[in-house]
Design a protein that fits this description.
- The protein has 804 residues and is an alpha/beta fold.
- It contains 26 helices and 34 strands.
- Strands 11, 12, 13, 14, 15, 16 and 19 form a seven-stranded mixed β-sheet that branches. A five-stranded parallel β-sheet has the order 2-1-25-26-10.
- α18 crosses α19 and α21 (651-669) packs antiparallel against α22.
- It is globular, with a radius of gyration of 33 Å.
- The relative contact order is 0.11.
- The model has no long low-confidence stretch (mean pLDDT 90).
- The protein binds one RNA strand of 86 nucleotides through α7, β12, β16, α11 and β28.
RNA sequence: GCCGCAGUGGCGGAAUGGCAGACGCAGCAGACUCAAAAUCUGCCGGGGGCAACUUCGUGCGGGUUCAAGUCCCGCCUGCGGCACCA
């Protein structure tokens, strides 16, 4: 009898041995094939590791360990996305420096991750709040600035009334702050913006050349939201000015019966004097401005609006004078902030027209436009449209665009939903923006030699009441000289958003200690692109898009060798509480990974999280399930007692061994860890049934299981007398020919129902199989006196006989 | 409303169009034990039958096929994301 399985003793021991042996340190031998496996680096929150974290980490740890065994030079790094609001809020509340909070949290996280035995190369750890790191974040910002991709503008921004911070559109969730849940309202502020829209086409096009799971691609495409339409100028009646609109349906131009502009449209201000009902217009505008984006869309069920008296537009195709309305269902942030309304063929316009009694003119036949807007673009034919009559929508579009272009009053235009990225935060705990403002020279970038521009010590981390960053109160720091003219100047007091540091961290891992550059060119050439990046679906449209944008920009600047950062992207599902709900303190269903490690061991936690269900779907935690995985590991451990001599596989188990190697090898690659583990469970069930296992069979099992349960496998590898370490062994090979049995049991169906099973040779042709099938008593009984109409034989699967 | 994902035993979940329910959990019975836990062995979708067996079963309604959880058409429910995008 051997000693019982005691993870507590084994796991610590092997973690220390791996450290001492520098087992997972990345080699600098660039002649070896490389593999770059990446997981999203965590935000080191005060709560410590959540059981959701180990799911993706274990998955790619398995891939990384397997790749090393396959002879690759593997980069599998870890770091900290440590700037951010929770740390700052904690600092404010408890009067501790955010740096100290971060240090403590990082230490805690790191100890927790280490206890799980991940094969991260900790020598390459990065931290976004380290000045040696954010120096390069600032450096990249300066590059963007110099290319005109960073600019400052007055923007109506989303303003969190609780955090007192401006938020990107993407950070507003249902009208609430994504971080704190506080109310978000609109507020005009001077903000730094990044022109991600300049890269919209490239970001879209690049998706065709990467191996991302389909739903990630679809989300990104929808987010970028490319649509092809036309811009058309409507002359204002009796004026020189035109009102420019964007439409995806220029073919319906003859059906435009009125125009709508957004309440913020500059036209209102410009013709203030001439608008006969300006009081009414101004009141409506004021009301709209008070509403948050959320309210504007919530209240949208009932359309509101006001007509602009005294000003009207002329439809360029037929010279008809049509009124201009103001309504908040038209957004200033999309297109030109103005539309032509075609109530017959647009749902929103139709609703609006019905409510305000505006005319509805059918220009595409096929529906009943008095009942509902007819929006089908496939079947309809143009009517009431002069020279477009009789054409299909697609043809009409082309013809009208050509006509408009010829007249110089319109042209084809591509629009995107994607908006520029609000890059300012009125916060302390972020990267300072390395720009000064000089009365004479405007916004001037700091010289690169002055980077990093360090965060100064401040007395209070509270944002000021007027919304300025705490840095604005630091006059010593704020007042400086202009790098351009030497005159007095002020530093930018806004800081960067958390997304900044995470937009390029995978580049720093490649060469984390480089003082001369964000990473050396030779190292970048070797390691890029990231071969496999796994992360949460929630980062698909924010982080993933932002980092692709920065990478493409760096590529255009000649600073990185690939135009896409990530070759392959996968996503994992969430781990829910035992009750099937999202884990949260308030629901009281949070599971602490430390407790699982203490009670069952890290290998059990790893195995369980991989066994819990399909990797890309969410799964509910089950303490009983954890116990089952521990039982599996116990059973593997106890196989020591059944060990017999023999380096090879016994004849009767040979096929099973090769099948299992194949299944595990392929399933790991497909992220089907649950079925890979199930296959190993089945294999040891066979070992138990046989009452013995050879050393060769057992060693192969250990190699297959080692990426999942590395500590136990190292221990057993040594205990059974194998030399070296499991992590340094070669991944087992299978022989395809040996994965197939000589004989298989196939089902015999008669009229599609299984009536019997017979044994046939795996390679039997139909004739040989037929003989065996017909020899079966049950089959013969059923067939007697019946007419065989058809016989279908699928090799090794089924024999179906159709009778009458 | 739009986009995406899912719906299979008591539960988590398996099934290149080819024997639905692998593997695990829970449950039941037995072995071991003074006893319990742990462990080991066996059973384990519903109805009917002493039984060999039979019949119904993958959210619902149709269809294609020798054969459908899987493919097609039309719905329903849940989860996630976006939301007046012209």
């Amino acid at each position: 009898m051997n000693t019982p399985y005691s993870p507590k003793d084994i796991e610590k021991k092997w973690q220390e041995i791996w450290d001492a042996e520098r087992a997972f340190e990345v080699g600098e031998d660039y002649s070896k094939p490389k593999y770059y496996a990446l997981v999203e680096f965590p935000y080191p929150s005060g709560q410590g590791l959540h059981v959701g974290h180990p799911r993706p980490y274990t998955a790619l740890d398995i891939i990384s360990r397997k790749r090393r065994m396959q002879g690759y030079n593997v980069l599998f790094p870890m770091g900290w996305d440590a700037f951010g609001l929770p740390t700052e809020n904690y600092a404010i509340k408890n009067h501790v420096h955010p740096k100290t909070v971060t240090q403590n949290n990082v230490a805690h996280f790191k100890a927790q991750l280490k206890s799980l035995g991940y094969s991260f190369d900790w020598e390459r750890e990065v931290n976004t709040t380290d000045p040696e790191y954010y120096k390069w974040t600032q450096w990249i910002f300066l590059k963007l600035f110099k290319k005109g991709l960073a600019y400052k503008t007055q923007m109506p921004i989303n303003w969190c009334t609780s955090c007192k911070v401006g938020l990107a559109n993407e950070e507003v969730v249902n009208g609430k702050c994504e971080r704190c849940g506080g109310e978000v309202v609109r507020k005009v502020k001077s903000q730094w913006m990044l022109k991600i829209t300049e890269y919209a086409d490239k970001l879209l096009e690049g998706l065709d050349h990467v191996d991302y799971i389909e739903r990630v691609k679809v989300s990104q495409k929808n987010w970028i939201g490319r649509s092809v339409g036309a811009e058309v100028d409507f002359k204002l009646s009796g004026k020189e000015d035109v009102l420019r609109i964007f439409t995806t349906r220029p073919d319906t131009l003859f059906g435009a019966t009125y125009m709508v502009i957004s309440p913020e449209h500059p036209l209102v201000e410009k013709y203030k004097e001439e608008i006969t009902n300006y009081g009414e217009v101004a009141a409506y505008r004021e009301q709209a401005a008070k509403k948050s984006d959320f309210e504007r869309t919530e209240l949208a069920k009932e359309k509101t609006g006001v007509v602009m008296g005294g000003i009207s537009a002329v439809n360029p195709v037929n010279g008809k004078e049509i009124p201009i309305w103001i309504s908040d269902y038209v957004l200033m942030t999309y297109g030109t902030g103005a539309i032509m309304a075609v109530p017959a063929h647009d749902g929103r316009d139709w609703e609006f027209a019905k409510k305000f009694g505006l005319p509805i003119i059918e220009v595409v036949a096929g529906g009943n436009v008095q009942e509902a807007a007819f929006t089908d673009v496939e079947t309809g034919k143009l009517v009431n449209s002069d020279f477009l009559d009789g054409l299909e929508v697609k043809e009409a579009k082309e013809k009208i665009i050509a006509w408009l272009t010829g007249k110089g009053i319109g042209k084809q235009k591509v629009n995107f939903k994607l908006r520029d990225w609000v890059f300012s935060r009125q916060r302390y705990w972020g990267e300072p923006i390395p720009v000064v403002h000089c009365e004479k020279c405007g916004y001037v970038p700091l010289p690169e030699s002055e980077l990093p521009l360090m965060l100064p010590e401040v007395d209070s981390y509270m944002p000021t009441d007027n919304g300025e960053s705490p840095l604005a109160a630091m006059t010593d720091w704020l007042n400086t000289v202009c790098p351009c003219c030497g005159g007095p100047a002020k530093r930018e007091s806004d800081t960067m958003p958390q997304w900044a540091g995470s937009s390029w961290y995978f580049l720093r891992y490649i060469d984390p200690k480089n003082k001369e550059a964000f990473a050396g060119q030779e190292a970048l050439k070797y390691w890029l692109p990231v071969d496999w990046y796994n992360g949460g679906m929630e980062h698909t449209t924010l982080h993933l898009l932002y980092s692709r944008f920065w990478h493409k920009f760096l590529y255009d600047e000649g600073l990185v060798p690939t135009d896409e950062p990530y070759k392959k992207r996968t996503s994992h599902g969430m781990i829910l509480g035992e009750n099937g709900e999202k884990m949260s303190k308030s629901r009281g269903n949070v599971v602490n990974p430390d407790e699982i490690v203490a009670e069952f061991g890290a290998d059990t936690l790893r195995t369980y999280e991989m066994f819990i269900g399909a990797f890309d779907l969410s799964a509910s935690w089950s303490q009983e399930g954890v116990r089952g995985c521990r039982r599996f590991l116990d059973r593997v451990w106890k196989l020591q007692d059944s060990l017999v001599d023999g380096d090879g596989y016994r004849k009767e188990l040979e096929t099973r061994m090769h099948q299992t190697i194949k299944k595990v090898s392929l399933d790991f690659e497909a992220l089907k860890f649950n079925t890979a583990i199930a296959a190993m469970m089945s294999l040891i069930n066979d070992f138990y049934k046989a009452g013995k296992v050879t050393k060769g069979e057992f060693s192969t099992l250990l190699l297959l299981l080692s990426p999942v349960a590395p500590h136990m496998c190292e221990e057993l590898w040594q205990l059974v007398g194998n030399a070296g370490r499991v992590y340094a062994q070669t991944w087992p090979e299978y022989d395809e020919a040996k994965t197939v049995e000589d004989e298989v049991e196939i089902a015999v169906q008669i009229n599609g129902k299984v009536k019997a099973t017979v044994k046939v040779g795996t390679e039997d042709a139909q004739e040989a199989a037929r003989e065996k099938v017909m020899a079966d008593d049950t089959v013969a009984g059923i067939l007697s006196g019946k007419n065989i109409v058809k016989e279908i034989y699928v090799k090794g699967r089924i024999y179906n006989i159709v009778v009458k």
